[in-house]
Prior knowledge:
Blueprint: E1 4-6, E2 14-17, E3 22-29, H1 34-48, E4 55-65, H2 67-85, E5 89-97, H3 101-113, E6 118-123
Parallel strand pairs: 3-4, 4-5, 5-6
Antiparallel strand pairs: 1-2, 2-3
Helix pairs in contact: 1-2
Amino acid sequence: MNDLTITPSKQNPDLRFSTSGDLTIAGQSLPENATLLYGSVLEWIEEYSKNPAAKTTLEFKMRYYNTASSKMFFNIIKRMNQLSKTGANVEIHWYYQQDDEDMLDQGEYFRDLVDLPFKFFPLEN
Length: 125
């Protein structure tokens, strides 16, 4: 299994999913077709789930994302929740700008929908 890297663009975030268990989505996500972009991520997670690392950390370091991306993020988080239920050690790290209460609220909303440990990290503006 290979790592998954998608180079950021104006519409797409920086996606780095490593078989070492370090998974990161960063930047902004405004793809024209979120299902197409994140479909490869969901496929990668399916394969990764067959032999996960000792610890899996999914980091969200988003500046902005649209509704379609939010739905895909939730699908990714649900997959992480399923992985956790198999006994895997999974954590979500949610980064947000200190003055961006909406981004913090969104992370808390996702946290409340699954049974995963979430850690929140404020970033300096």
